[in-house]
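Narrative of activities, Objective 1.

The group set out to show that a structural description can be obtained from nothing but a protein's sequence at a throughput compatible with the screening campaign. Below is one input-output pair from the validation batch, recorded exactly as produced.
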Amino acid sequence: MARYTDPVCRQCRRIGEKLFLKGDRCYTPRCAVDRRKRPPGDNVPRRRRSSDWAIQLREKQKARFTYGVLERQFRGYFDVARDRQGATGDLLLQLLETRLDNVVFRLSFVDSRRQARQLVNHGHFKVNGRRLDIPSYQVKPGDSISWMGTDDAVPEFIETLTDGLPKRPVPQWLRLDPENLAGQVVTEPNLSEIDTGIESRLIVEFYSR
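Output recorded for this entry:
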């Protein structure tokens, strides 16, 4: 399975803003965007006025980097959203938000989507009582998500990750049960609660060329 293996901070620097790909580190002075305020690479071209295509491409890449999706899979999400009834851009963001790794992140079980993807891949979560190791699994209203712990005790690393839940505000389309380390999908994602700052309209325009 293909995956991005370079430093994720390069993605933030390429976009020119924080995408919060490394969790709490992005809020500290160690953040690469604050320390190095130019795009990655030795020969960086001088700044010029960006074309409409460049602006649309940047927004598409911003969405890809934020959710940790490669181009082929992202285009697949766009095709699914385009074939459904409704606003394509809004449906695209809903598909990305209902990925299992993003839901684990939204429930505040982990510090970043990348960490969520790794833990899901390793089989540390179950959906509706069944172990699931597919980060791209699309959750539905009524699904319950919980840690794959043992019957006797919760592993130490899970206690460390979940200490002080919730660490971040949990969106209203999800319900968190801190005592049982579980969450539930209540309804479809509310677009007003998606705080990624992604202009989905520009992504639709990019693929409509």
